[in-house]
Amino acid sequence: MSEMLKKFDSQEDEKLLQATEKFHAECALKFPNRQCLTTVIDISGKTVFVTRYLKPLNPPQELLDAYPNDPQATAELVARYVSLIPFLPDAVSFAGICDLWSTSDQFLDLLAGDEEEHAVLLCNYFLSLGKKAWLMMGNAIPEGPTAYVLTREQSHYLIWNPCSGHFYGQFDTFCPLKSVGCLIGPDNPEELVYQRTDKAAAAELQDRIEKILKEKVMDWRPRHLTRWNRYCTSTLRHFLPLLESSRGEEAEEDHRAELLRQLGDYRFSGFPLHMPYSELKPLIEAVYSTGVHNIDVPNVEFALAVYIHPYPRNVLSVWIYVASLIRNR
């Protein structure tokens, strides 16, 4: 056994552990630059076979009901759900400890994890959908060592980035994954039970975030009066759910044209921000980074709207639309 693995207890069969160690050593000789993964450390500090993490797990039913006759749209929605779970590297969640792997249910309970946790959960969901799916360990730009998911479709393969929800064809030159060390396949089936997210609590959080962000914009403009255009804000509130339902695609251009038509007396400048919810600080930083508060043109008005779409297990998709309006003379 390697010196690192000797430090950790294991309930796996000793002969199998020795066989995997031999296999790992042979791979290291033949492919010294490849990441070949056979065992990992779980959050209780035990060495386990990595294949134990892969098993068909049912996604939330509301995701399956959204596109009952479109398997590809369902797969994309499931990938989006996984990408909305906040990213947190092991160096933060398990500071001072080696790379620890959470199971899918532990990941959903913690509601935070790194590339491996996102990839394992997405792979397990795809297995439940009847797809041929593998965990794909490799190197990507800019992540470096990372984990993606590979699925075999009818006549081709797709490579999925579990942290962004994006997917790429097997020959797509724009795929961030530049090399693959190994593919890892599944083991035993299981079923997950999902708790519905409290929609009233999500709506209350949505209103609180919008109020705080507006107060921040005013705080960042101490020498200027900040006027809020209620009509534009109301329009943006109605538009943000459309962005969520279209996953930010297509609807935006149609919306801008409609918005410009309704605000004919104003020059409109703004855009939507989207991110998963973990805490308030990243949302404040995102709005600040737009620099909209730096506009000091006389008679400028502002609009800011927030929409939170709740998914099961308290996964929250947050949209923020921030804009400035200047009346045409």
Net shape: elongated
Give the strand tally. Answer: 13
Question: How many individual domains?
Answer: 2
* Share of residues in helices: 25-40%
Number of helices: 11
CATH fold description of the largest domain:
C8orf32 fold
Q: Low-confidence parts, pLDDT < 50 over ≥5 residues?
A: 1-6
CATH architecture of the largest domain: Roll
Please give the radius of gyration in angstroms.
23 Å
Main sheet strand line-up: 8-7-6-5-9
The major β-sheet equals: 5 strands, antiparallel
SSE order, one letter for each helix or strand:
HEHEEHHHEHHEEEEEHEHHEHEE
**N- and C-termini, Cα separation:** 77 Å
Task: Indicate the mean pLDDT.
Answer: 86
CATH class of the largest domain: Alpha Beta
Structural class: alpha+beta
* Range of strand content: 15-25%
In short:
Helices cover 38% and strands 25% of the residues.
What does this structure look like?
It comes from Myotis myotis. One of its GO terms (cellular component) is ciliary transition zone. It holds the Pfam family CEP76_C. This is Coiled-coil and C2 domain containing 2A. InterPro entries: CEP76_C (IPR056288), CEPT76/DRC7_peptidase-like_dom (IPR056290), Tectonic-like_complex_comp (IPR052434). The protein has 329 residues and is of the alpha+beta class. It has two domains: 182 residues, C8orf32 fold, CATH 3.10.620; 129 residues, Pathogenesis-related Protein p14a (3-Layer(aba) Sandwich), CATH 3.40.33. Strands 8-7-6-5-9 form a five-stranded antiparallel beta sheet, covered by helices on one side. A hairpin with a 3-residue loop joins strand 5 and strand 6. Helix 8 packs across helix 11 and helix 9 runs antiparallel to helix 10. The chain is elongated and about 80 Å long. The N terminus is likely disordered.
